[in-house]
Amino acid sequence: MIQITMPLNFLGSVYREIRQSLVDMGEMFNLLDQPAEISDKPGAKALEVRKGEVELRNVAFGYEAERPILKGVSVHVPAGQNIALVGPSGSGKSTIGRLLFRFYDVQDGAVLIDGQDVRDVTQTSLHASIGVVPQDTVLFNDTIRYNIAYGRDGASQAEIEEAARSAQIHDFIQSLPEGYDTMVGERGLKLSGGEKQRVGIARTLLKNPPILLLDEATSALDTDTEASIQDALARAGEGRTVITIAHRLSTIADADRIVVLQDGHVVEEGTHEALLAAKGRYHHLWTRQQAEEDAA
Ligand code: ATP
């Protein structure tokens, strides 16, 4: 019997690992358009996150040699700060997320986490340190509990509930007749976009990463949904370094710092108020977006 269960246990853990990496890849779908051929350096060490400081130091990058996307971008995110990347569509915001994960290598400069170049550490340790809240959370045809617990194998019910509470989705789950055992996904209960996103936030919180990358939804949600997601994200970000890829500006006014990208460069940075007062690029983007939202 032992002879049979041992290999089954082993297969089970391999299966879980593959499954986990597939979820991570699935969640990265919006950020990762194309698999890159990146491998660990021989003898690469595990990333040691002590504080969670992130730095892009003079980064140059393009997907194709003849079309540079980032032309010497420096962004410093002190540990525990919450910064937002904004800029016109195509300015390279999601690209910065991909470089942080080392899905591509920079062509010049460096991406550093707590002073360690992402090219010098193992990808497994790098990916374990960064949690992503994607625009669209992939739900599996299984229970809500299972869907949240994807964030970490072996999580207890109490830990799952704590994550769900922080993600502001616990009360909703409790209100369902079958609670955490409710089946969701294609063949189960259809969750709204906002509910799905909060399940995604709970999943990421369970992983408990020191660094969070938020890929904000491109489309406007209704005001109540947006407010509950903003609450959930604010809770999720407590005590962590947070980088938000903001496709719209209305949600990031509270960021510690907003970094404005354009034509491959950082053209402005500061708080929402300071940038509005400066009446520069951000002010222009903000006014235009307000007008669009009013018209809609
Ligand atoms: P948005 O706000 O519209 O999502 P963004 O600022 O996040 O835009 P990126 O997704 O970083 O922009 O893309 C920057 C540029 O790089 C775009 O011109 C895009 O077409 C190009 N690009 C993105 N992914 C690839 C890829 N895999 N291969 C080639 N070019 C790419």
TrEMBL record:
Which residue ranges does UniProt annotate as crossing the membrane? 1-15
- Domain ABC transporter residue range list: 54-288
Superkingdom of the source species: Bacteria
**Where in the cell is the protein located?**
Cell membrane
What protein name does the entry list?
Answer: ATM1-type heavy metal exporter
Q: What is the lineage of its organism?
A: Bacteria, Pseudomonadati, Pseudomonadota, Alphaproteobacteria, Rhodobacterales
